[in-house]
Amino acid sequence: MFKRGCGLEFLLVLCGLELSWSCPRHCICYMAPSTVSCQAHNFLSVPEGIPPHSERIFLQNNKIHRLLQGHFSPTTVTLWIYSNNITYIEPSTFQGFTLLEELDLGDNRYLRSLSAETFHGLGRLHALHLYRCGLSALPNNIFQGLRNLQYLYLQDNHLEYLQDDLFVDLHNLSHLFLHGNRLWSLHQNTFRGLGALDRLLLHHNQLQWVDRLAFHDLRRLTTLYLFNNSLTELAGECLTQLPALEYLRLNDNPWECDCKALSLWDWLKKFRGSTSSVGCVAPAELAGKDLKQLRKEDFPNCSGSESLHQSKTNTWAGTNKVSLKQEPHPAQPPQTHPHHPQLNEQFPSPPSPLPQPPPAINGVQVVPGVSPDMIPDQRPGRSRNCTRQRVRGSKGKGPNEVHILKEMADKEYSSPDFTGKYDETSSNGSNTRRKHKCTPRTSVRPPSGVQQATNLGHSHHTHLFLCSISGLLTLILR
Predict the structure, then answer these.
(1) Over the stretch 8-62, which tens digit does the pLDDT of each residue have?
(2) Could you write out the DSSP letters of every residue in 363-432?
């Protein structure tokens, strides 16, 4: 039997529902947690009427141009605005958003620049998405105070340079995605402060030079991807600073396997983790061979001091000069790089653009020398990070369908090189097979109780009818 007070409580809940459950036109809203879904409706601006206490707001796949202060409420916890046409974000747009945990601004290709104050004060933010935003530079202090950030997505932009201490406040960052940019160098303090970093993805850039102390703070790094760059040499001392390293990818770089490679060769021989091939392009007698498979006899006339060749000759503070591989193409007018250390010197033009990935096989693109199954599993005792590519086309199917991630921290590598299990050979010839299986993300329709802003008159009559029925029940139960 109903208790005597139940009918009255039910009546009060129903009668108060409409006051707290408004919803913008063409959107879907529901409670617990309070959510507004306005995806894929060609909105040119943030729709009006978003409930002031909404916790989750989904505005992806529209044509929104600007984000201004007052568009959202400081109660917002999750905000997705990816795949729009955003060209400007007012610096105070997210001011006071102390509860915001995930902000996805990715795939706004014409954004191109951000104010240094854009994300200040977002102390609880744990995932920030800025992939494919056309960014060519990041201002100093843009990540200041984001001490709870764990996932930072900067891939597929036009970044050429990362200034010192850009990430110094990100003490809890575990995943940093920088692949698909135009980075050409890594300095001593580029990654300073990232003591909790687990994965660093730098593939598909134009890296030519890495400071021997570039990774000095990355004591917990387990995964480092440097494949498909323009590296001709890398000091073994760079990698000795990574005691937790398990997965290293160096393939598809023009490695020069002469005396300069001796320290890297020595480090690879001692490394017990999983590595890719390290294909030599020079000298001619070693072209096509894997540096890992060479013997000591393949380095004639190389003394022990040669292993420190890079650290002595390619240091900013030492000679103020960068050793760059000359292009075999006809001479071109020299170009000035604003971030090259220069003493009235001119440097050769940067390498030609990287070759495009080969065609897909069965829907998966293959990078030469790398298994297409690149996601390593987690070590025992670690929390599993199932980082998969978000399928953009799946969201927005059906009328205002709301998609909920099973794990909000799971985000895509946004690269064809990460698809599943992994099988590779370590430097000592042993086979290291890693399998990584993640539960596929599920998309669910809105739960019962969803309010869709379609016919306000009908919903109002239904509301009055329910209130009347509840009132009668209350009287009967008395």
Answers:
(1) 344 433 444 433 458 999 999 999 899 999 999 999 999 999 999 999 999 999 9
(2) TB---TTS-S---PPPPTTSPP-------GGGTT-STT-----SSTT-----STT--S-EEEE-TTS-EE
Torsional class of 288: left (φ above 0), alpha (ψ -120 to 50), beta (otherwise): left
Q: Six-digit token pair at 195? A: 């003591």
Query: At residue 225, what are phi and psi to the nearest 5 degrees?
Result: -115, 115
- List all residues 6 or more positions away from 460 whose beta carbon is below 8 Å from its beta carbon: 18
Q: Which residues pair with 186 in a beta bridge?
A: 210
Spatial CA neighbour of 159 closest among 187, 181, 186: 181
Name which of 146, 165, 205, 198 is nearest 181 in CA terms.
205
- The tokens for 105 are 């601004």
Digit-coded pLDDT (tens) for 268-318: 999 999 999 999 999 999 999 999 999 999 998 887 545 444 444 443 333
pTM: 0.68
Beta bridge pairs of residue 440 = none
Measured between alpha carbons, how far is 58 from 79 in angstroms, rounded to an integer?
A: 6
How many other CB atoms sit within 10 Å of the CB of residue 331? 9
- β-strands 431-434, 199-201: how paired? unpaired
Spatial distance between the Cα atoms of 405 and 430, rounded to a whole number of angstroms: 38
Tokens 């190389």, residue?
302
Positive or negative torsion for Cα 38, 39, 41, 42: positive
In the three-class reduction of DSSP (H, G, I as helix; E, B as strand; rest coil), residue 467 is classed as: helix
User: Distance between alpha carbon 5 and the CA centroid of its chain, in Å?
Assistant: 52
Nearest alpha carbon to residue 14 among 468, 467, 461, 473:
467
Angle between helices 456-477 and 6-20 (to 10 degrees): 160
